[in-house]
Amino acid sequence: QVQLVESGGGLVQAGGSLSLSCAASGLTFTPYTMGWFRQAPGKEREFVAGISWSGGDTDLGDSVKGRFTISRNNAKNTVYLHMNSLKPEDTAVYYCAADLRNRGVATMSRAYDYWGQGTQVTVSS
Fold it and tell me: Which segments in the chain show pLDDT lower than 50?
């Protein structure tokens, strides 16, 4: 069964850094694009970052450009989100998701086929 598990969330002060990981199982022989999304209370789910299977294509949401980066290690079946210069408005539950159909990076949540349970990131002022 396909499973995505996020880790690395926690508390951090504004201006600090944090890195998240997403470990995938059940997708070893299937190329997939990975996306990171986040959702704060009372708000819609928001695209954060995406990376193609080869790593050749990446995309970042407007609110995180210049601060976040995305990378992957396919040998470890793991995708990472590196967050720098964190702001209180970055506080949210962060989800990773796998897209098995589209070659490039999609920014709409409906494009993704599998989702993790999420990890909480809280940034204090």
Answer: none
